[in-house]
Write a structure and sequence with these properties.
The chain is α/β, with parallel strands linked by helices. Helix content is about 40%, strand content about 20%. The protein is globular.
């Protein structure tokens, strides 16, 4: 089944053509309009999606070398995300479904991230644990079987990616914060400052990064003058390591508690090369099978939405034209038929 995937949940406009697990095209356009504001402006995001989505869809079709009439199904993100942004993609998907007379299905954005790693020849063995780390979400998910998800740990305040953005703003590094901190952290000493690792002494799998962000803020304020480039590098490296230590420890706890041997990583923060290196080292020591999506498939993209849509469509699921966007959609929410 050749699926057209559409992703417009936040500030990436993306369209993809996927046939089973084979990506024929995956076009992603990151909106640059938000940089001067230090974060995503919802109204600007939805307007950018309106301008960009149709041209990006045409580019995806051209890259895949197929015609619109050859599409056999449509998958689109309907939540969670920004309401206005989600609405753009959902309206286009419904219109195309009517025009082409093909089935369509609404996809949970988080499920798309979880299934991104299946766009490869190496599939995780059920049951497995998935760590989702992005700008809006930090979750540990137990995947017992296909389309069976149970959240076993979540952030109680800031998501990890959100903490990266806020710390980058404190340090004057710009937006998005993740790549900026990763780049300058390479020049720093991650042992220079001991920032807190929250909830590691608790008997749960939840996360908390707000206190870590505040600790960075107080540290910067305690300096007698604006931090030098080297100080910013040391702060960035120390902050980044604090986040990674928590993610590593919680993942190990989840794997041990559920007696799983497969760990899937997903979400935009998983693009961080230091995180990938440390997880790869950890799984070798613990004899765990690690499943990492390619960097392109970590960020918000339509290929992962098409993949999730393919699973649901082949399972006989279809979405009603009454389906609306759901900005706060939970992972265990089933597709509306």
């Amino acid at each position: 089944m050749t699926i057209l995937g559409i992703e417009t949940s936040c500030d990436e406009t993306s369209a993809a053509i996927v046939d089973g697990i084979r990506i024929k095209s995956n076009i992603i356009s990151t909106q640059m309009v938000h940089q001067e504001y230090g974060g995503v402006v919802p109204e600007f995001a939805s307007r950018a999606h309106i301008r960009q989505l149709l041209p990006i869809m045409h580019q995806a079709l051209e890259t895949a070398n197929i015609k619109l009439s050859q599409i056999q199904g449509i998958a689109v993100t309907y939540g969670p995300g920004l309401a206005g942004s989600l609405l753009v993609g959902l309206c286009v998907a419904k219109s195309l479904s009517l025009q082409l007379e093909v089935p369509w299905v609404g996809v949970n954005h988080i499920e798309g991230h979880i299934l991104a790693t299946t766009l490869s020849n190496r599939q995780p063995a059920y049951p497995y644990v998935c760590l989702v780390v992005s700008g809006g979400h930090t979750l540990l998910v137990y995947v017992k079987k296909p389309m069976d998800y149970k959240i076993i740990g979540r952030t109680i305040d800031d998501a990890a990616g959100e903490a990266f953005d806020k710390v980058a703003k404190i340090l004057g590094l710009g937006f998005p914060g993740g790549p900026a901190i990763e780049n300058i952290a390479r020049q720093g000493d991650h042992t220079k400052i001991r920032f807190p690792r929250a909830l590691l002494d608790k008997n749960n799998l939840d996360f908390s990064f707000s206190g870590l962000k505040t600790s960075v803020l107080y540290h910067v304020k305690s300096l007698k003058q604006p931090p030098s480039i080297q100080q910013i590098a040391d702060i960035s490296a120390s902050f980044q390591q604090a986040v990674l230590d928590v993610l590593l420890k919680k993942s190990i706890m989840a794997l041990q508690r559920l007696q799983c041997s497969d760990l899937v990583l997903a979400g935009g923060v998983i693009r961080n090369s230091n995180l990938r290196d440390q997880f790869q080292k950890m799984v070798k020591e613990k004899k765990i099978k690690l499943h990492l999506p390619s960097p392109e498939l970590c960020t918000d993209n339509a290929a992962m939405i098409a993949r999730a849509g393919h699973v649901h469509l082949e399972n006989g699921e279809r979405s009603s034209f009454n389906l609306d966007v759901n900005p706060n959609l939970c992972l265990d929410h089933t597709v509306t038929n």
